[in-house]
Amino acid sequence: MQDLGYLVLIWVVVLIAGFLARKTRLTPVLWFLFFGALLVNIGVLPHETTPFIKIFSELGIIVIMFALGFEENSSAFLKSVKRSWGIALFGALAPFIAAYSVAIYFWHDTNIAIMCGLAMTATAVSLTMVTLRNEGLNRTPAAIGIMTSAVLDDIASLAMVAILIPLAIGGATVSIAGVGMIVLKAITFFLIVTLLGGWLFSANEGPLKKIPIIGRFHMRHLLLSAKGEHATLMLLLLAVSVGLLAHEFGFHPAVGAYMAGLILKDEYFHLNKKPEMSLYIRTRGVIESVAYSWVGPVFFVTLGTKLIFDPAIFFSIMDEAIILTISIFFAQVISAAVAARYTGGFSMDEGMMIGFGMLGRAELAFVVMDMAYTENQILSTEAFYTLMFTAFWLNVAVPVCIRWWKPYYSGEKRSPFSQKPTDGQGEES
To answer: Is residue 424 part of a domain?
Structure first.
């Protein structure tokens, strides 16, 4: 029953955070993180997340990413991949170099520096996408650029884990075949998801319709059966199943859930031609309620509990944490913004939004920290806490910076990169 008590407390915090978000005009995610850190440090929530809350939290991020993919246009996503390779490459390389350099300067240990660089490489896109949604920007070109770049970053980060972890622990050699296998698994996973989308929902309309049995079976019949009574359950089943498939291929389940949402189209859900009677609208409303109101927020509150305040350690690593945070901040924003401008064809205002959106560090960063600190004892205590504080403040910076840059991005205010003054409505005067 203790776990249920923790869940009730978190839900109370979610309600309070929502109220404060409306009063302060800040994104609720920032308040979720704040209350998670506050409750764990005053002893209300445990330092070690209980198995029940941990699983509930993981389900939360899966549903959040599925909901975000559900809202997205798949063709726009695929088109954005062509524009995002440079953002992914330079947006990962610059933070790695920055973190590696700072770690070498302070701790003079190559292995620690490698782990610090690796932990600061991948973007926590879930935090950014929820923030963009709260600001009404989740369907903008910048949002699609962030998401596609982050997915590419995940693939690159997995390859770097395969290469750098063996180097750091000194217990294995780098295997070209191993790295090649990771790339092959990534390609295979995305092909499987694409084929699932083509078969499960539109087999009788696409090239698969001529194949016996397969061409006649698709989930649209199940979605529309019983007037869509079980549609929400089927979509949640799809989200978790593809998330588990992604995990088997070495990705975070949230990436799989996003891809599962991405293959869905609104026409798969229509019961009739009237939009207001569409099953898609009803089902999407339920999914969004689950993702953003009562399951998804648990993930962000739990993420806030990762920051444990120890006065002695805190003051001992103050310089390191501040310098590393500032270094990653500028390396990430500048590299992503410039890459977006010159390799992706985005405007500089869009590039800055992409740079701010790629500041978050969460899932993969904490996995690397756990491997390096708990499992292999590569990181020192000081390095571990420096990374924890850096990740926390970078996460805090995401909603703050996006909120600050929104008027410049939308054209309500003239940005430093604008060539002509604006009339306050987003149009050049």
So the answer is: no
